[in-house]
Amino acid sequence: MSFPKNFLWGGATAANQIEGAYDVDGKGLSVTDIMTAGNLDHPRMLTYKLDDKMQKIPSVPGAGLPKGAVGAIDPNEYYPNHVAIDFYHHYKEDIKMFAEMGFKNFRLSIAWTRIFPNGDDKEPNQKGLDFYRRVFEECKKYGIEPLVTISHYEDPLHLSEKYNDWQDRGMIDCYVRYATTLFKEYKGLVKYWLTFNEINTAVMFLDMFGGNGTDEDYQHAYQKLHYQFVASARSVKAAHEIDPNYVIGNMICGIVDYPLTPDPKDILLNFHSWEKNIFYCGDVQCKGKYPTFAKRLWDEHNVHLDITDQDKQDLLEGKVDMYTFSYYMSNVVTTHEVKDKVDGNFTAGAKNPYLKYSEWGWATDPDGLQYYLELMYDRYDIPMMVVENGLGAVDEISEDGKIHDDYRIDYLRMHIKAMERAINDGVDLIGYTTWGCIDLVSAGTGQMSKRYGFIYVDRDDNGKGTLERMPKDSFYWYKKVIESNGKDLD
Ligand code: BG6
User: What is the three-class DSSP state of 150?
Assistant: First the structure.
């Protein structure tokens, strides 16, 4: 047994990290448009105007802008997403290269502000709708199935200010109208959709800084999640009414936690960490109701949620059709004091002595992927997709003018083998889209030098470069992998 015949091999991206053209053809401002560049030592900042003065604060997920602040672009700052890799004007060339690798599947997201520039406009922006139609048609030309994330970390700035980052149920209607517009518009061109990217990060990151989240932070995060769950469920229902063939997935940031020691306190902490970070969102979106442990999580932080009977009904009727997740790394939790700490993708914990870490501190752990797949498939029993996986690394152009990224090939090979083992153990895995199949702007740091792609893009951390595309060694390797349906991994 190995990869199923119609396995969806491909790659993944997000609008704000590739498109650029941030103010072109009627697009409004998204929260990512006021985010500066950062690096490992300096966080990305959000820029805004308050009391007529330009100011900035570190961009922390869910924290939003201070009261009364209006997001603004500071002409003295550099915003990497404004141009990104200019996919907006290079999409034909890029999709052609994906087709050359044999992609069956291309995950991309739609920028909400291209469709509804403010998020709550009366009519959609025709030029925005036309752009994605052209992109999907280009994919179809090569037999590539688009997998579309409706919201990938980029709410319209106007809505974020008006509703204080999902603190008002008005957001639900805006989202459902946006999603329904897409379902109607792209019927026949798109089959697979994801409602919210890494929805669980709203609570996950609160522990990142040593569990310092205040009760107010938790109230904000759980309320935001509830409104997003309802928005997702109502959209799933709408999608199925518009086209019963639509397949809609959730999308979870899949971090595998391990206990550091066999101390029962560590085991319990680990279990509770899975409940809060991973199962909480998965259960609501796949089972259609809150799990029993939700009450304990809310009580721990005096959380009181606005949940109506209609919401509960919608959650039940709007369960997702497939479970999708990103997987990069595992994490170690403990109740004990540790000297060796690391932080990675929305998590922080003890260093695992059995694993190697990337330059950005992310642990390479393919067994964790197998573990995650088997655990989740048993829990939900619906088809699964790994929609992000990859190694962010610095690439050097060699003397022969090429990029020999064997480290990336090694990373991906190990994870593909792990997926194969999970399939052999019975997991219904239907697709795999590696993250950043073409180099793009890092979401975490805003860097271009943290590269994930099979395709190199000539652009640096300061916005210099020709934007020229070039295949890396991994490009030819992945082509072979797809051609052989995962058999030839050498
Ligand atoms: C995931 C996000 O968390 O990780 C992507 O869905 C992101 O948007 C990816 O780019 C990798 O993270 P980073 O910080 O290396 O870009």
Answer: strand
What positions carry a catalytic annotation?
A: 198, 388
Rounded to the nearest angstrom, the distance between the alpha carbon of 442 and the centre of ligand 1 is 6
* Interacting residues of 95 by C-beta distance below 8 A, sequence separation 6+: 106, 135, 138, 139, 142, 144
Cβ within 8 Å of residue 476, ≥6 positions away: none
pLDDT of residue 120: 97
Ligand 1 and 197: CB distance under 6 A: yes
Residues in the chain: 490
**Pocket lining: 324 vs ligand 1, CB cutoff 6 Å:** no
The DSSP secondary structure of 333-345, one letter per residue, reads: E-SS--S-EEE-S
Structure tokens at 315: 């959650």
Query: Tens of pLDDT along 354-400?
Result: 999 998 889 999 999 999 999 999 999 999 999 999 999 999 999 99
Q: Give the pairing of strands 8-12 and 45-50.
A: unpaired
Burial of 465 (0-12, 13-18, 19+ CB in 10 A): middle
Closest CA to 279 of 250, 311, 318, 321: 250
Question: Would you say the pTM of this structure is higher than 0.90?
Answer: yes
* 442 close to 65: Cβ distance less than 8 angstroms: no
Three-class SS state of 186: coil
**Ligand 1 center to 445 CA (angstroms):** 9
Q: How many whole angstroms from 434 Cα to the centroid of ligand 1?
A: 11
What is the arrangement of strands in the sheet containing 341-343, beginning at the earlier edge strand? 256-259, 330-333, 348-350, 341-343
443 CB within 6 A, ligand 1: yes
CA-to-CA distance for 224 and 249, rounded, in angstroms?
A: 19
Ligand 1 mean position, distance from CA 441 (Å): 9
Please identify, by atom number, the ligand 1 atom nearest to the C-alpha of residue 392.
15
Residue 487: band (very low, low, confident or very high) from pLDDT cuts 50, 70, 90: very high
Q: How confident is the model at residue 62 (pLDDT cuts 50, 70, 90)?
A: low
What is the three-class DSSP state of 429?
Answer: strand
Residue nearest to atom 8 of ligand 1 (CA): 443
pLDDT at 346: 62
Distances (CA, A) of 266 to 269, 272, 333: 5, 10, 7
- The two three-digit tokens of residue 376, written as one number: 């989740």
